[in-house]
């Protein structure tokens, strides 16, 4: 297949039917009409707008949901915005669920379609934004007025990044948001141009979609895409170094040998008992998992905390001279696991305790009093002491609770945690089996 | 015993009898007379002077040797100095051996006393020194004219540093020279004052014996003692950081509990088979020795090369992720051994091969071609490869010859080297057994 054929076939897998699209647009129109009417009846100076990928015609088949923003005057007090916003939203359906991102919004279903109803301020320009959600209508307007014929290219890029495992700006993935994909397509002019440029990206690259460079603020992120509606903001702020470089790699691999698989990678088989045993035997490493119940928090709160635990455990082990080959944090929102592949997990019975520099007399005398067997190594006193933890697992069991762990996860770990090894880890289920296959890769 | 009694008793162990001293002085006078006469007969404008600790009355009982310098006019050509110097020296005895330090000199025995006969230039002041030996007569004059009543204090300091294992500026020890001991006693006014100040020394301390600070050149050494006869020179240049701090430690220990043992430490028993086995079992470490024949070179040439080998082997091991707990270099001038106490000496079957940063495209593509299984870790490509050396000993055997080794030692190692472990190491003899006891200390 030629690249064009591949893109065509990929698109046919992700582009909604015209019929579905029309239904969705009709639903959006209906809701807006209802909301506008009810707002008037409630005496509110508020109107509804359709935003997000369904409004921009860039959504992927099967992911249909409609974001409706309720536009309040900017001078509305915050409490009023929340109170009347939620009240107005609830007029759409009897089955509403209140959710909370930066501020509350309503989730409901209307004519079989998932709807998010989000109250926000209709500020006059993006520099007057009062909360992050106020930015969405600006993003919407920008994309709608610039994307022109490139809606399908945006769909391709979203699916491509999804296939590469780098789609989604939530904190679990730390990848590319939908808006970022749309901007890249607008900036480079086509899906293939994004891929070609992506293959040559370098850390720190700045994409200035709307010539806002003069307003530029330095960002430490690996990729900077200046938000055309808010030049101080980096649209790629959530993108991690790891995902940035994985994207570059995916672009190069696609250019080298384009394939449908890169858009729709085959499902990952969970690694099984025998296979894992065999693999670890061949590698000679020890696989360790610290497991605990997931606290009752959303993914976006959980993942940063899991990464914190991962860092803490790795730090704990390395400080005690054990050696971690690789690590990862996993959760299915029921159980969590920090996975460690160990290179060195047993150590001799002695360790060196490092004392003060010899020429710090007072510290030295105290150290010598405590450790009469101390001797000099270079410029310091040191002493050989019995190693407290000769095994990595004992160390984790004894010291995990002394580590920085993140608030909610700490509570959960304090209640109960386990340390399991090698194929025992698979008792956490198939999703972990998939995660392990990706982490270790045979 | 009071400190004074200890010093008195220590002194009686190291101060030569008056009779011996008189004999020595008489021998020196006799030789000088002979040399001066023979010089005149040979038509040389040369005279002999007695230098060194026997001339300064600071030598230790049992270490009697006499240094006689043959003072040539500074305009004498170097070849003439050597030719006539050696010729004149040989007139003292029929049994002369030619030696070579910075330039040739004669070793002989006269009336039962070891004599060194060293030709040098009698330059008008120390800034005109043509070779290092020319400095000795200046040192001699300085000490003789400043030491006054402190000869015995100098003896005590020499013996004290010897007891602490830090006496001798040769490259094996990298400790305190006799001249340095004398200067310290002159500067501080007594042995006890040196010890008291020594206990408070700090790295980088500058001792300006003769107010030459204005000529001071910055030195990187841990202790700077500006040479009163040559202000650009650090008398303590040969002193290693390790020995400097060991001296400070010894001073503090002496002040805390003065004892004869610190002047005359009990002999070290070589560690024996059983004891070493027991000790290593308790520590859980592996002792490794790389052994080879000593090349036919003097200690001062050998030791820097041995340390180079030690550094190289430790670096080799650490680069391959093995872990060295401590190391040392030993020689009895027949055999040499680099000793390593290992904390980690076996590793799993995989290792991580680190590739280029992902955004270095050309390097990355080459790396991926070579390693199709490469994956991204942070900002780099890496790949898991079979570990070439899973054992430290295999690694040393395979790679020692690729290390930087020092010219002469490299030749010897290239001929043959062994890697032996644990109590096998003791086959190198009792001196190594002593060295091991000091290195490991139970």
Automatic annotation (TrEMBL), chains A, B:
Residues 283-421 form the CCA-adding enzyme C-terminal domain. Residues 152-264 form the tRNA nucleotidyltransferase substrate binding domain. The keyword Metal-binding applies. CTP binds at residues 53, 56, 139, 158, 167. Residues 31-138 form the Polymerase nucleotidyl transferase domain. It catalyses: a tRNA with a 3' CCA end + 2 CTP + ATP = a tRNA with a 3' CCACCA end + 3 diphosphate; a tRNA precursor + 2 CTP + ATP = a tRNA with a 3' CCA end + 3 diphosphate. Signal peptide: none annotated. The keyword Nucleotidyltransferase applies. Pfam families: CAA_C, NTP_transf_2, tRNA_NucTransf2. CDD domains: NT_2-5OAS_ClassI-CCAase. Keywords: ATP-binding, Magnesium, Metal-binding, Nucleotide-binding, Nucleotidyltransferase, RNA repair, RNA-binding, Transferase, tRNA processing. ATP binds at residues 53, 56, 139, 158, 167. Its cofactor is Mg(2+). One of its GO terms (biological process) is RNA repair. It comes from the Archaea. GO terms for molecular function: ATP binding; CCA tRNA nucleotidyltransferase activity; magnesium ion binding; tRNA binding. A single active site specifically recognizes both ATP and CTP and is responsible for their addition. Homodimer. Catalyzes the addition and repair of the essential 3'-terminal CCA sequence in tRNAs without using a nucleic acid template. Adds these three nucleotides in the order of C, C, and A to the tRNA nucleotide-73, using CTP and ATP as substrates and producing inorganic pyrophosphate. tRNA 3'-terminal CCA addition is required both for tRNA processing and repair. Also involved in tRNA surveillance by mediating tandem CCA addition to generate a CCACCA at the 3' terminus of unstable tRNAs. While stable tRNAs receive only 3'-terminal CCA, unstable tRNAs are marked with CCACCA and rapidly degraded. This is CCA-adding enzyme. It comes from Methanooceanicella nereidis.
């Amino acid at each position: 297949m030629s690249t064009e054929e591949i893109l065509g076939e990929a698109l046919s897998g992700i582009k909604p039917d015209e019929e579905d699209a029309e239904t969705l647009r009709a639903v959006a129109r209906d809701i807006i009409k209802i909301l506008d009417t009810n707002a008037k009846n409630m005496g509110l100076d508020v109107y509804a707008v359709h935003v997000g990928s369904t409004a921009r015609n860039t959504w992927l088949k099967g992911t249909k949901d409609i974001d409706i923003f309720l536009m309040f005057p900017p001078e509305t007090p915050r409490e009023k915005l929340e109170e009347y916003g939620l009240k107005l939203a609830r007029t759409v359906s009897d089955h509403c669920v209140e959710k909370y991102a930066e501020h509350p919004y309503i989730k409901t279903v209307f004519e079989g379609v998932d709807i998010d109803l989000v109250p926000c301020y209709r500020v006059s320009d993006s520099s007057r934004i009062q909360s992050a959600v106020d930015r969405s209508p600006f993003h919407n307007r920008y994309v709608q007025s610039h994307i022109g014929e490139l809606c399908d290219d945006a769909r391709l890029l979203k699916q491509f990044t999804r296939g590469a495992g780098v789609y989604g700006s939530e904190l679990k993935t730390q990848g590319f948001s939908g808006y970022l994909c749309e901007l890249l397509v607008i900036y480079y002019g086509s899906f293939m141009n994004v891929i070609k440029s992506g293959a040559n990206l370098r850390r720190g690259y700045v994409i200035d979609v709307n010539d806002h460079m003069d307003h530029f603020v330095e960002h430490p992120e690996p990729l900077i895409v200046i938000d055309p509606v808010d030049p101080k903001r980096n649209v790629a702020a959530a993108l991690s170094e790891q995902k940035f470089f994985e994207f570059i790699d995916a672009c190069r691999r696609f250019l080298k040998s384009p394939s449908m698989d890169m858009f729709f990678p085959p499902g990952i088989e969970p690694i099984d008992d025998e296979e894992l045993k065999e693999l670890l035997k061949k590698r000679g490493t020890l696989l360790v998992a610290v497991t605990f119940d997931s606290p009752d928090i959303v993914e976006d709160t959980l993942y940063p905390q899991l990464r914190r635990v991962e860092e803490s455990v790795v730090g704990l082990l390395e400080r005690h001279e054990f050696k971690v080959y690789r690590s990862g944090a996993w959760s299915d929102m029921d159980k969590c696991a920090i996975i460690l592949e160990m290179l060195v997990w047993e150590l001799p019975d002695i360790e060196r305790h490092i004392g003060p520099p010899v020429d710090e007399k007072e510290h030295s005398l105290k150290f010598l009093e405590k450790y009469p067997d101390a001797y000099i190594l270079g410029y310091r006193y040191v002493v050989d002491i019995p190693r407290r933890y000769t095994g990595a697992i004992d160390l984790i069991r004894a010291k995990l609770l002394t580590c920085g762990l993140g608030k909610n996860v700490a509570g959960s770990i304090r209640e109960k945690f386990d340390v399991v090894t090698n194929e025992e880890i698979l008792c956490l289920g198939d999703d972990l089996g998939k995660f392990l296959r990706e982490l270790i890769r045979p």
